[in-house]
Fold this protein.
Amino acid sequence: MNFSKTTDYAFRIMRLMSQDELKLFTVEEIYQQIRIPYRYLRKLMTHLTRSDFMESVQGKKGGFRLSRPSSQITLLDILKVVDPEYLTGRCFFGFENCALDTVCIMHDQWTGVRANVHAILANTSLADLHVSGDLNEHFKQPK
Amino acid sequence: MNFSKTTDYAFRIMRLMSQDELKLFTVEEIYQQIRIPYRYLRKLMTHLTRSDFMESVQGKKGGFRLSRPSSQITLLDILKVVDPEYLTGRCFFGFENCALDTVCIMHDQWTGVRANVHAILANTSLADLHVSGDLNEHFKQPK
DNA sequence: TGTATATAATACTTATAGGTATCATTTATG
DNA sequence: CATAAATGATACCTATAAGTATTATATACA
Ligand code: SF4
Ligand code: SF4
């Protein structure tokens, strides 16, 4: 139901960066805004770089930036990088494979829930996240 | 999205036991039907006993049985025992508390998903699981 | 009343996600 | 070309879920 901590972190990071689509962010700058454990944040940033929506520049004056407009980066894109197993169509009861032709009563219901979540994540871009005012103060204090 | 292994185990166990509501099952019998690691199964059985839907009888000729009809045991009842945190209304981004008055665009959508899942689990009883034929063969071979 | 058969309780081990520490590499710039 | 400032790679540590092992307790019944 809920996401892993790492997934939550990734969503927060990407949302922050989407506020300035072209800016090159250093890890230090991101850390100032979102208090994710510093070294873990660094590791996660390089991990996010192994995607088609984030790129890095090495060396002095380096950093990270989005590689396409935030309106073209969905939450699903992000989830696929940090937790690709999240939406895999697993059996409600956790079985690896269903041996029966007739599906049990939970099968279609759970498939429906998964499709619902999938649609929400696929239809929400980073741009959609900051249309309703500035949430920065909120995001600075994750407690 | 998906459940913990332990939750899946609990669902399988409860569904099996609901097929014979009054029967006293030994761990050995359950193990024969559902190949959950034996000692872990034993631990989980006693854990399930700390609920209002499962009771145990100690000593020789002892075992476990449901303490009320399977039609009155919902998947939500089971989930509450084995993973009470699963449905807690956490923030989409994993924040502990929301500092803002205006909610972000994900707030209502995620609340909706959670309500949907809650309704499915609360409205499905163990009796509902075995109306559409016998799934025993399937459940015996979780692979 | 002793023994076999069942669950209860507790402690230990292992697998994995989350987090930390260190060193290597890249590159702007004096 | 040396240095500083940034990311990259790797190894290690820690907290939690999953799984194992051992001992204690309850009870039917010969
Ligand atoms: S029919 Fe039911 S038990 Fe079988 S794979 Fe689908 S959800 Fe799982
Ligand atoms: S408004 Fe958005 S960020 Fe704030 S608690 Fe709700 S889901 Fe989380």
User: Anything to note?
Assistant: Chain A has one domain: 5-138. The beta strands of chain A are 54-57, 63-66. Chain A has a mean pLDDT of 90. The longest helix of chain A spans residues 105-123.
